[in-house]
Amino acid sequence: MTQQYLITGGAGFIGSNYVQRLLKRGEKVIIFDNFARAGAPRNLEWLKKEFGGDAFEVVVGDVRDADRIAEAAKGADVIVHLAGQVAVTTSVTNPRDDFEVNALGTFNVLEAARLSGKKPILIYSSTNKVYGGMDDVEVVEDATRWHYKELPFGASEEQPLDFHSPYGCSKGTGDQYVRDYYRIYDIPTVVLRQSCIYGPRQFGVEDQGWLAWMIIAAVTGKKITIFGDGKQVRDVLHVDDLLNAYDLAIANIDVAKGQVYNMGGGTGNVLAVWTEFGPIIERLLGKKVEVDRGDWRPGDQRVFYADYRKAERELGWKPKISLEEGIERLFQWVNENKEQF
User: Which residues pair with 57 in a beta bridge?
Assistant: First the structure.
C-alpha cells in the first residue's frame, strides 16, 4: 500500500537519497526544506531531472515555524525528521540558532505529528554526539589510531548520555523528546543515533561531512586542515546502508517503536580521519596530498564507533557496503561532478 512520507530536510544529503528511493518504489513524498544549505537546490534539481517536477511535493519551510510544519504533516503516514543544524563547530559559535533549529525544531515536528491525529511513524535522525566525550571509557593509542580498551564491539545504547557540546545538547534534547512522545502520546517514534554517514549527493564542508569534504578538497585542489592528531577514529556508514535501516525500522515498527538504535559502521568500518584515510585518498588520487594542521576542536571525540548489535537483533540490520567500496563510489561521484564544487 502506498504511503505518504514527509521528509524534513528532504533536499539534503540523506534526505535526497531517501526521496529517490521512495519515489522509485512509488511512494508519495513531501519534501520539507528551507534550502539554506548550498547543496539543497542542486539536489532538488537532480530529483526533478530524474523523476519530473510533478512526482513529489515541495514545501519551502523551516522547522522553527510550527504552523508551517504542522500543515505539511497533516496527511503524513511516515515522518522522517532529518532537518537540522549539523555541525559541532557552528553550535559553539551560534548556540542559540543551533538550539532553535535542533531542539525547538524537533519539538515542532513532534507536535505536528501529535496534532495530525494520524499517529504517523516518526524516524528521528539523532547522533553519536549525545554520548559526549565518553571520558569514563579508557582509550589506547596505536601507531595509526585510537581505540577503546575494553569495548570490543564499540559503544552501545547503554552508554550514558553526556551531551558535551551545544550540538550534543540540542540533538540530545530532540532525542529524548522523541522517545517520550512514544511513551506519553503513543506516537510510534524511533531514534537512530547515527555515526559518520557518507555517500553521493553529499556536498561536505570542513565542519561537517568530513569524509566527503576531504575527497572533494583533494579532487578540486582545496586546502585540507587536520585538527588534532589525525588519529581520531570514527565508524563510517554508507548512506544506502542507513536507508536500509530506515526501511527496516518502518517495516518493523511494532518492534522498533519507542526504541533507540545506534546506527554506524561498527568495528568493521572504522577509520582514522587522516593517518588511515589520507593514504586511501592519495592512492585514489595518485599523488601526495599536503595538509595544514590545527588544534583539537571542541567536542571532538578521540574515538567513537558504534555497537549496532541491537539493530541487528531486533531489525535484522547490518552494514553491507564495505569501507573500500563505499569510498571508491564516493570518489567516483565527486570526480563525475567536479563542476558542482
Answer: 30
